[in-house]
Amino acid sequence: MDSTAGVADLHMHTVASDGTCSVDERIYQARQRDLDAIAITDHDSVSADIQDRNTVADGLELIAGVEVRADVLDTKVELLGYFIDPDDERLTSILEEVRTYRRERNRQIIDRLHETSRLDRSYADIRAEADGILGRPHIANVLIDEGIVDSIGAAFDEFLANDGKAFVPMERVPAPDVIDAIQSASGVVSLAHPGRIRTDNMEGIVEKLVKHGLDGIEVQYPYEAAPSEGYADVSVEDAAALADEHGLLKTGGSDCHGPESGKFRIGEVRVTQGQLEALRECADQRRSL
Q1: Cβ-contact 11, 67 below 8 angstroms
Q2: In angstroms, what CA-CA distances link 195 with 186, 217, 243, 274?
Q3: Of 270, 190, 262, nearest in space to 226 by CA
Q4: Least confident span in 41-45, 73-77, 258-262, 281-285
Q5: What is the pTM of this model?
């Protein structure tokens, strides 16, 4: 399956979470790469610059999206929402709940870094320096600035990854609640990057999510650009087969975080016009209910 052939990149982040670009910069980059549509899928938040479920800006369709951390079968997954109503009260409430969990985790990570490294900046100082939602990539850059590590990879390897010195697990919202919240906002729900989930029970996870209303699976994704150790052995072809088996929509995107992030790959992974239209049709049907 050619992940570079298509018209839309449906997975990227801005400064509203852990990306390095604004929405306007994303629009410019997308036009430079001849994309017809993009979805902004910030972690646990919707940029204040996105007011409608979809709009046209500079000839580009801008789709309101979100990527929400959730729990299924005691496993962390991330669920993508597309064509969402940014002002939906149920979704807004769930996103605030997830952000609260993230804030508490970040405080604990900083406390552990004070114990296990030479870091002396306070949580308040680090929070004030970060645009959008503070996350581990921001903390990794602080460790680089302080001369404690020399790369984001080293920061995760030594301190922030699951077996790192400062790792802290984060409480998660049950996946059925996240699915319900996205769909209450007239959105379409897709399981993000199944090949980046730490599990040996992918079939069970997908079956459980389908039971609770999952609409799609992220099939096209740059798995070759991500470390594979500990992740499920799921390729683009495997994800497509899972989608076919369960009658799910196929979504995809580059998971671009922007320049200087190590993940500046907007437009390198795309969905086809047919896949985009199927997603839109599902969202329109849900909105009309």
Answers
A1: yes
A2: 27, 11, 13, 23
A3: 262
A4: 258-262
A5: 0.90
User: Do 254 and 11 contact (CB within 8 A), yes or no?
Assistant: yes
Give residues with Cβ within 8 angstroms of 280, minimum separation 6.
83
Sign for the pseudo-dihedral over CA of 51, 102, 152, 140: positive
CA atoms 84, 87, 91, 97: torsion sign: positive
Q: What is the DSSP string of 154-193?
A: HHIIIIISTTSTT------EEHHHHHHHHHHTT-EEEE--
Q: Give the H or E element holding residue 35.
A: none
Helix axes 89-116, 136-145, angle to 10 degrees: 30
As a whole number of angstroms, the distance between CA 242 and CA 18 comes to 29
Q: Which two tokens stand for residue 99?
A: 């952000």
Residue with tokens 């929405």: 23
Strands (DSSP E) found in the chain: 8-9, 37-40, 54-57, 60-72, 75-82, 173-174, 188-191, 216-220, 249-252
Amino acid making up residue 107 = R
Phi, psi dihedral angles at 282 (to 5 degrees): -60, -45
For 183-239, the pLDDT digits (tens) are 999 999 999 999 999 999 999 999 999 999 999 999 999 988 765 678 998 999 999
Q: What is the CA radius of gyration of the chain?
A: 18
Q: What is the DSSP string of 201-242?
A: -HHHHHHHHHHTT--EEEEE--GGGS--TTS----HHHHHHH
Maximum CA extent, the chain: 56
The answer to whether 239 and 217 are in contact (CB under 8 A) is yes
Q: 126 in helix, strand or coil?
A: helix
CA 178 vs CA 51, 192, 274: distances in Å: 21, 13, 26
